[in-house]
Amino acid sequence: MAHAEIHHDRSIDTADLAALSGRTVAVLGAGNQGAAQAANLRDSGFTPLIGNRDDEYAIVAREQGFDVRPIAEAAATADIALLLVPDEVQPDLVRDEVAPGLRAGDALVVASGYNWHFGLLEVPEGVDVVMVAPRMIGAAVRDRYVDRHGFPCFVSVERDATGHAWDTTLALARAIGGTLGGAIVSSAREEAALDLFSEQAVWPAILDILRTAHRVAVGAGFTEEAVLNELYLSAEPAEVLAHMARDGLFGQLGLHSRTSQYGQLRALAALDEGGELAQRFARVMHEDILSGAFAREWSRPEAGERLDAMRREADATPLAVAEGEVRARLGE
Ligand code: NDP
Predict the structure, then answer these.
(1) Smallest Cα–Cα separation from 63: which of 75, 52, 72?
(2) Is there a contact between 69 and 49 (Cβ–Cβ < 8 Å)?
(3) 156-178, pLDDT tens digit by residue?
(4) Which of 96, 101, 131, 138 is found 20 to 30 A from 124 (Cα to Cα)?
(5) Most ligand 1 atoms within 8 A of CB, residue of 27, 28, 33, 62 to mutate
(6) pLDDT of res. 1
């Protein structure tokens, strides 16, 4: 079993933030993560600049008292730049507006490993590149900092040009509340691969299970209302997943009837753990993700159009149409 090192703190101690003192921190992008991390940094005693285009996000950030500048200016002023714009805009933005302002000794901080791992970010020599990647949506990054529950995050040093990139990484993770929930030492490769694996193996399998279950149950003569509510419209699966996180994958079984427990475990035991699903998952991991094939495909200009076409097709499937009708009949 491989275990990761975890940095866990009970509180945010100013002495542990020394690696940031005297350094100008800029949060590039005041969106989900950016707004939350900027507010957390400020409450941890720093005065982060915000880099954003001059629009509603900038107005809101200024109303909250932040010094908001154009992205290129914020990046050039910063010693530590947190790259918190959507992943798909990062390569061009870094090349055109961020990298020209970075100097040797500065640090660029990413919150996801994808662009760095797949070689899509051009960062000048001498600049540290580190990852502080919350495993949490932005709103909860803020809420859990305020209530001191914290949130888990993945941390790594991808390029240690200065020799003290780890100090910067851990101090940043602490300052945004990441070590309260546990900063897990990882890598851009691991973060990106697991994210993509979840998206391209686990979730398609779950979507396929629900789609197939719907087709079989409706084919057996049951109503759309009953089938869709049983499968997911009631949000019962969301409750089960929340209990899995709290009580364990099998620990939560105690919340189900004994009939249910017997049925679930009997059917699970009959499935072949090393069967077609395992082979498909391994293929996705190695051939699509780790090989870089998916990243190359997604970087092609036509990929966005293909996504839009696939979304339209999905919205027109019998399940999606039935779902809309059931929702309307339930008055949602
Ligand atoms: P958002 O979609 O919320 O980012 C919006 C921000 O990006 C806004 O400030 C917006 O500015 C700016 N922006 C968007 N497009 C451009 C552009 N073309 N040029 C300049 N600025 C632009 O991003 P997230 O906060 O969701 O994600 C940021 C990073 O955090 C990503 O790397 C993501 O993978 C990572 N992450 C996200 C999590 C989440 O739950 N959201 C969880 C963990 C990591 P404007 O006002 O000008 O539109």
Answers:
(1) 52
(2) yes
(3) 999 999 999 999 999 999 999 99
(4) 138
(5) 33
(6) 84
Q: Which residues does ligand 1 sit against, CB inside 6 Å?
A: 29-34, 52-53, 55, 57, 71, 84-87, 89, 93, 111-112, 133-134, 137-138
- Residues of the chain under the 70 pLDDT cut: none
Instruction: Dump pLDDT digits (tens) for 195-204.
Output: 999 999 999 9
Give dist(CA 39, CA 17) in Å, integer.
16
Sequence-distant (6+) residues with CB within 8 A of 285 are 193, 197, 201
CA dist list (Å): 325 to 10, 218, 229, 234, 271 = 49, 15, 13, 15, 34
67 and 49 Cβ atoms separated by less than 8 Å: yes
What does the buried/exposed string (b/e) look like for 163-196 if buried means 16 or more CB atoms within 10 Å of the residue's CB? eebbebbbbbbbbbbbbbbbbbbbbbbbbbbbbb
- Under a CB-based contact definition with an 8 Å cutoff, are residues 48 and 80 in contact? no
